[in-house]
Description:
Layout: H1 3-14, E1 17-18, H2 19-33, H3 46-49, H4 51-67, E2 75-79, H5 85-95, E3 102-106, H6 110-119, E4 124-126, E5 138-143, E6 152-157, E7 160-171, E8 174-185, H7 192-195, E9 202-205, H8 207-223, E10 225-234, E11 244-247, E12 250-252, E13 262-264, E14 267-268, H9 272-278, E15 282-288, H10 289-295, H11 298-308, H12 313-324, H13 326-330, E16 333-339
Parallel strand pairs: 2-3, 2-5, 3-4, 5-10, 10-14
Antiparallel strand pairs: 1-7, 6-7, 6-9, 7-8, 10-16, 11-12, 11-13, 15-16
Amino acid sequence: MTAKDRFVRLIAATGPISVAQFMAESNARYYDSRDPLGSAGDFITAPEISQMFGELIGLWLADVWDRAGRPAPVHYVELGPGRGTLARDALGAARRFGLIPQVHFVEASTALRRVQARLFPQAQWHQDMASLPDDAPLLIVANEFLDALPVRQLVRTEAGWRERMVGLERTQGGDRLVPVAGERPMDAAVPPALADAQPGAIIETCPAAAAITGEVARRLAAQGGAALIIDYGRSAPAHGSSLQALRAHAKVDPFAWPGEADLTAHVDFSDLPAIATGSGARWLGTAEQGTFLIALGLGARVAALCAAAPDQAPTIRAAAHRLAAPEAMGTLFKVLGLAAPDWPDGAGFQT
Ligand code: SAH
């Protein structure tokens, strides 16, 4: 039975399920069974585009750790490390500055754990953040992790706001999963600034991203350390669904391929600083990815790599452009920096 058949059966038996439940279960199944990254997979991420991305993250970590007094032991924690590429490049660069942390991966996918173990046989894996060590500072990195967490959607109807659900449409060609409005009034859950909207308007929140950010902040406050949370998203709340599905590098209907396509949503970066500071961490700033990488020395990395491998120069320059140019990933992707209250500022954030 395919994943879609399971959803059809469930919904036929118990009625529509929330978009949040749909996204959570679809992605759990999707990630558990495969390595979705790279040109042969469904999507590509910054660390898979170029080693420069991870190297600059590693230099950022080594720099704050150095200015925090080089505490030891120290733990490197990556949330959703994918193939382990970012960890390899970051820790390779950090090692040159004497930063050799213990490695912890928060990873739900069995398939990806296996891939990560090839590069990091000594790593410790965690299902969620609860089991992370509490004896030493944490250097936490999450790239394209929050966007995979389930969003909750509310939709405006003639009768008021409702949760957006996934229901069934029975057609001659077979059953289709389609968005429908729930029955329970949800007006009380709508932020006043967004409440006034035409029927059909959608509001999206991500309680799981807020919870993870709060947990990261609490850990930093209690243990020391710093964190970089990198993702694509918006810097102000907005109406509309940003739910999208990628399959073989093409956008598809987010409801058509449960468990077979990567479901993501824009991260709302406007919420996260208040959540983090409310949980005891210091907000170092939020930068656009392009600005951040250039401030960290992307230009110098490009020059060094091109000098070492002149025949690769066009590829290296194209990768840097893709990571940093405004029309590529440079402005859509944001970097949120957090630290323990007594840890230093991080490079790359103008405050
Ligand atoms: N950071 C990597 C991979 C991004 S894909 C990169 O930049 O290439 C998202 C990653 O998060 C995958 O490793 C996926 O298995 C993991 N993931 C998604 N949802 C998760 C969850 N709820 N708990 C733990 N890991 C999750």
